[in-house]
Design a protein that fits this description.
Blueprint: H1 3-17, E1 21-22, H2 23-30, H3 34-48, E2 55-59, E3 63-68, H4 73-79, H5 90-102, H6 107-114, H7 119-127, E4 131-136, E5 144-148, H8 150-156, H9 169-188
Antiparallel strand pairs: 1-3, 2-3, 4-5
Helix pairs in contact: 2-3, 5-7
Length: about 190
């Protein structure tokens, strides 16, 4: 089979699945090894960079997905109902960042870091498909473990959680001090 046939098969797989497909599954489908398959997909990704093409292939944690280029959204909205935009409040962003950097993590651990209940925030993040249940901790009560989803990666434009910015320890300490000062001010009122 020639390379154009492989590209057509990969394109059909990614278009039809609609979600990300792991590299090893694509390789098995076209009966090539992962290295050869990855090279073909990377070539396709370059081809899709052409401004006259409205879709692209993105990589998410060693998986690939075909999706619409963001510059096409305004035209899609004219055709489809406007998608519901999820509002991420400061509380949701704070909870999401704790989960992203500490995953897998339980609600109790999140609450210990935040100092307040996180049930509502975690439930909203699960509803928005930014966070999901990863399983249960092997501890008394078997609490749920939470982590980020592929939707989180797509929403924040990263291929894996390894690409998240590194936290500066000095800044973290400053944030802690600011939070403690705010807490003391609230208690004094």
């Amino acid at each position: 089979m020639n390379e154009k046939n492989y590209e057509a098969i990969i394109e059909a797989i990614l278009f039809t699945m609609g979600e990300s497909v792991e590299l090893d599954k694509i390789a098995a489908a076209i009966e090539l090894d992962k290295k050869e398959t990855k090279a073909i997909i990377e070539k396709m990704m370059k081809h899709y960079e052409n401004p006259s093409i409205g879709v692209k292939i993105i990589e998410l944690d060693d998986a690939y997905q075909m999706c619409t280029k963001s510059e096409m959204y305004e035209y899609l909205i004219k055709i489809a109902r406007q998608p519901k935009r999820h509002v991420l409040t400061d509380v949701l962003l704070e909870t999401l960042s704790i989960i992203a950097y500490k995953q897998p993590i339980t609600k109790v651990e999140i609450e210990k870091i935040r100092g307040v209940s996180c049930d509502h925030a975690v439930n909203k993040l699960v509803e928005y498909n930014l966070v999901c249940e990863l399983g249960r901790l092997d501890a008394p009560g078997r609490p749920l473990l939470f982590g980020t989803t592929e939707e989180f990666l797509r929403s924040f434009g990263v291929q894996s959680i390894d690409e998240l910015p590194v936290l500066n320890p000095v800044q973290v300490e400053e944030f802690k001090q600011e939070a403690e000062a705010e807490m003391h001010m609230k208690l004094d009122i």
